[in-house]
Amino acid sequence: MDKRIATLAEAVAGIEDGAVVMIGGFGGSGAPIELIHALIDRFIATGSPKNLTVVNNNAGNGHVGLAALIEQGMVAKLICSFPRSADPKVFTELYLAGRIALELVPQGTLAERIRAGGAGIPAFYTPTSYGTDLARGKPVEEFDGRPYVRERWLKADVALIKAELGDHHGNLTFRMAARNFNPLMAMAAARTIAQVSRAVAPGGIAPEEVITPGIFVQGIVEVPAPAQEEALNRADAHYPEVTE
Amino acid sequence: MDKRIATLAEAVAGIEDGAVVMIGGFGGSGAPIELIHALIDRFIATGSPKNLTVVNNNAGNGHVGLAALIEQGMVAKLICSFPRSADPKVFTELYLAGRIALELVPQGTLAERIRAGGAGIPAFYTPTSYGTDLARGKPVEEFDGRPYVRERWLKADVALIKAELGDHHGNLTFRMAARNFNPLMAMAAARTIAQVSRAVAPGGIAPEEVITPGIFVQGIVEVPAPAQEEALNRADAHYPEVTE
Amino acid sequence: MTSKLSNAQIAWRAAQDIADGAYVNLGIGFPEMVAKFQPPGRQAVFHTENGVLGFGEAPAPGAEDWDLINAGKKAITLKPGAAFFHHADSFAMVRGGHLDVAILGAYQVAETGDLANWSTGPKGVPAVGGAMDLVHGAKRVAVITDHVTKDGKPKLLQACTLPLTGVGCVTRVYTSLAVIDIEDGHFVLREKLPAISFDELQALTGATLHLDGPADSAVADLITPEL
Amino acid sequence: MTSKLSNAQIAWRAAQDIADGAYVNLGIGFPEMVAKFQPPGRQAVFHTENGVLGFGEAPAPGAEDWDLINAGKKAITLKPGAAFFHHADSFAMVRGGHLDVAILGAYQVAETGDLANWSTGPKGVPAVGGAMDLVHGAKRVAVITDHVTKDGKPKLLQACTLPLTGVGCVTRVYTSLAVIDIEDGHFVLREKLPAISFDELQALTGATLHLDGPADSAVADLITPEL
């Protein structure tokens, strides 16, 4: 078994118009910048994929990564917990112009809905958001005298995630706090593509140190020395590059 | 912060009559034999704790560990998925005599109920057991055209678990498949005591390799070279030792 | 010539349908045998409920490590690329639809796809393990079983009489006499031993066997090596 | 003498109530300041929603690693005994009642314990983050805030007028003027600045301040170092 994909272009080739795409990361930490940029390249070359529903904790920052994907007009709807950042201009303008839809989900509920999607749990109850605007229209039930809101699972057609090591079976590790949503999204997508900083042979990750077992991963593509969104933004980078 | 407990006797001192006690392990793998035997010692010396509700995947094997705990008459009720083993005589006889109660739970539902208890999710829906005797009396709901059974969380007063490394903050790693229910039970108990094969200073476990973060662990007790239930049973061991 | 397939031959036949790279859970006991018969050049990844993916054969006697066992509590070994995880993640794999195939034993299978394989009735100590989870989520749930009980009664029925493990979950049955799919509430015969006639097979089956096409071409010969 | 506490002084006061070894989540922004004022000899373990337990101060400028950030996306460092985990485990810690204290900012707090701290109304882009999760599960949910808004209106009210973050979740409020507990639907005044009278404080508060005992002994002086 060898889940390696040779190029970023091949890695994002199968994503269709209208797809639900989970994108890992919390802000720039753990964001698969190179996979996102490959998707933008494809869109610029072919006009597809568009009308995407993107699941991410945020709404991008600056003009790279998720912000650049939104800036291209590829995203019809965003499901996230915190669409603000140091430079959220791209999302903010489209949102206020009514050109992108937003489903706002509390962060812990977002994480749990994604995990539920991966674990075959169609619905669960949480205390989070009870009595607030974000619980409107959702069933409420009392357990042991306390009210809880019912939430549904969240699944995706594709997950684009960022990992540190990936073996040929798709077993993954993550670097520090870049773990965040990445292992959960791997579980919840029909097809999970991981960009890994280093691809290793099976056995290259100790079985006890695997964070995402390969069963949740359909393809890995090696991206040595991946870009950090924060560093790109500090350099005022744009994707694609702005030419004079 | 130092969560080390000096002796096994101190580690099990706080468990009261009638407590719900989760005990880690799958069969003998990951079973905290020494903690269980310390609890038996306390019972023999003081008559307490008794009337325990024990949560474990199994019902013990032979006459050591969980089987020995049951053999002492300390367990009023067992919540488990598979109360059979190579030598299940202890449980079988008490059960058939009506002297121990059994709540049979499908293994995946047991794991998920324990995780839910640890994660603050009071109830969730699962396809497991739908249309079977084990779903009797449980609410059923349809999601996306498919029926699911509603299950409740499972929590405990105490969890007794077995880990490999444990640092003074309670961060834990587990040895191979001895992981099983142990990290979940650590989450679901008000008080989690881990026997660890080796106690290390904070920093002795790489932050990315921690399996159970210390927030889920209230005490660790070092038990170097812990016994394996399977090995004890192959030697026909009894606890306490049978004297002529 | 044998009148029915041995367990090894049933397991061999089931193994032929497992694709290279498939993620597979084999039930405790007889189904474990399927792992031995992977066709050359194919390598499935085996999952066991207690938190191991990518395990291999049993170790040599005396070389067991009792922290490294399968769901049947038997000692196993690891292949390169193996991973450990806890029970909730393990059943996320099961329930979440990540396994390609689960192969299970059966007391009874109904033409509706219902399966009974965990309890023979109210006597004794009930034990369910992971059976009720495994029948949900795997992309394909197959059963391997003798075609009839030890005393010759059909195990393939219109409806199970024993306590159910799952409803409408089984899609293929490999028996000692035939390979039968379950489609739209019917048993559809795909393969049978050449030595047994359709009428003989029907007489040993507790529900109607359907054919997917003309009688002379719809059913293939069930041929296995001597095992 | 100051007429009210500085933010640093409010944070200092809140820090005095955090026990040694407590697991603590500090909300983004102002609450992060609480970490600086742990009393000598006490060491809390700080949790951040994005999957880190046991982090320390900000690194020196230029030494940032952008894979090591907190929920506010600021660079952090690790202390010995730190651990990483994914978002579902992180919020299991929050929702599952494993945190000892969460200290959050507030737009408004009601005497019922209701909190409004995520939205100032329907204008602009709404963003909630982990706020609605943090108010549930932590054993103690405390708020640090100026006693009144920038234009002098009460932030402590009978009922919140802004969109709620959570219902009945706050148990203690540290303000620029006082320390107030929420018990049985009432504000109970515990400490106030010596320079302000009870009546003055009541006038700046949008709901009745109760006393737990005789007026001359129920309220302690709120005293902090100059910060």
Automatic annotation (TrEMBL), chains A, B:
Xref: SMART domains = CoA_trans
The residues forming the signal peptide are none
Kindly give the Pfam families that the UniProt entry links to this protein.
Answer: CoA_trans (PF01144)
- Keywords of this protein's UniProt record, alphabetized? Transferase
Q: Which GO molecular-function terms appear in the entry?
A: CoA-transferase activity
Does Transferase count among this protein's keywords? yes
InterPro entries according to UniProt: 3-oxoacid_CoA-transf_A, CoA_trans_fam_I, CoA_transf_BS, NagB/RpiA_transferase-like
What family, per the record? Belongs to the 3-oxoacid CoA-transferase subunit A family.
The name this protein goes by in its record: 3-oxoacid CoA-transferase subunit A
Lineage start = Bacteria, Pseudomonadati, Pseudomonadota, Alphaproteobacteria, Rhodobacterales
Automatic annotation (TrEMBL), chains C, D:
- Asked whether the keyword Transferase is assigned, the reply is yes
Signal peptide region: none
Q: Which UniProt keywords apply?
A: Transferase
Pfam families, sorted:
CoA_trans
Q: Name one GO molecular function term.
A: CoA-transferase activity
Entry keyword annotation includes Zinc: no
- What PANTHER family is this protein classified in? KETOACID-COENZYME A TRANSFERASE, SUCCINYL-COA:3-KETOACID COENZYME A TRANSFERASE SUBUNIT B-RELATED
In the record, the note on similarity to other proteins reads: Belongs to the 3-oxoacid CoA-transferase subunit B family.
- Under what name is this protein listed? CoA transferase subunit B
Q: Which organism encodes this protein?
A: Paenirhodobacter hankyongi
